[in-house]
Amino acid sequence: MEVNKLIFVTRIFLLFLGLTSTLAHGQGTKVGYYSTKCPKAESIVRSTVESHFKTNPRIAPGILRMHFHDCFVRGCDASILIEGSNTEKTAVPNRAIPGYNVIDDAKKQLEAACPGVVSCADIIALAARDSVVVTKGINWNVPTGRRDGRVSIASEAGDLPGPNESVFNQTRKFKNINLSVQDLVTLVGGHTIGTAACGLVTGRLYNVNSSNGADPSIDPTFVPTLRALCPQNGGGSNRVDLDTGSGSRFDNSYFNNLSKRRGILTSDQLLWTDPSTKGFVLQYLRSATSFNFEFAKSMVKMSKVGVLTGTQGEIRKLCTAIN
């Protein structure tokens, strides 16, 4: 037994070494990029996240979602933060994400400490990691060195996976940015923290298939609970934990809920029934260690999508506007 445990730990260690080695040479980003340029950069972001989290825990899943949404459109370039009449920030999926103020606060402090050095794109990536940590999830090394984009167009947010999409469509959108089916299941596992508005849920609870019944893919004993949280008439702004029973803690119980047919969003529950994704759901509900390790790996992989480095883009003085 001890030998097997040693083999497993060694394998994880070697995989991690390989991962960090890849990061150090991947797409112009590297772990510790600011170690001499702005030594307190990561600690400033971390303390800012921790401070805001104490007064508003919703910022943690919000920032994680923000990073995801940013990377899916034009790559991880902080284009989601730019304000204007037709920017990504105005698109429906991005309007109400909690945590924009946290990024702005961290940027203000970093500009005071190291003017013109730390990109908004790196702040989002670091804050996403720190948001997982404050909700009792895994810690990992974040490669930095991204630069900020200068273009942000609301219509491009249509590339984001939606709450009612088939696994086929979700997989296609992930593959468009070179993320695998396993990355899909792993990263959607971020729904272990956070909530959904009832407006995204009520369609599964009432008058499904021209009857007064609920979506048959939902555990029927769970329907009354959801209906109490999301009444048929009104309550569209109420919110439901995406991981029932553990919505504020980063763990693997989200996958256990899928196996019990208690996924909140259609797109989530489909991961349990589709043959291409069910195996990964089973893997993660059986092993929190596996989920945590793969989540960190997929987050790093996603964070390198379409990054701007070197002389590309810019380092914004304000995250909300191009220079």
From TrEMBL:
Its cofactor is Ca(2+); heme b. Binds 2 calcium ions per subunit. Binds 1 heme b (iron(II)-protoporphyrin IX) group per subunit. The active site is at 69 (proton acceptor). It is an enzyme of class 1 (oxidoreductase). It is found in: Secreted. Its EC number is 1.11.1.7. InterPro entries: Haem_peroxidase, Haem_peroxidase_sf, Peroxidase_pln, Peroxidases_AS, Peroxidases_heam-ligand_BS, Secretory_peroxidase. GO terms for biological process: defense response to fungus; hydrogen peroxide catabolic process; response to oxidative stress. Residues 28-323 form the Plant heme peroxidase family profile domain. Ca(2+) 2 binds at residues 192, 243, 251. One of its GO terms (cellular component) is extracellular region. Substrate binds at residue 161. Ca(2+) 1 binds at residues 70, 73, 75, 77, 79, 88. GO terms for molecular function: heme binding; lactoperoxidase activity; metal ion binding. Pfam families: peroxidase (PF00141). SUPFAM superfamilies: Heme-dependent peroxidases (SSF48113). It catalyses: 2 a phenolic donor + H2O2 = 2 a phenolic radical donor + 2 H2O. Heme b binds at residue 191. Residues 1-26 form the signal peptide. Belongs to the peroxidase family. Ascorbate peroxidase subfamily. Belongs to the peroxidase family. Classical plant (class III) peroxidase subfamily. This is Peroxidase.
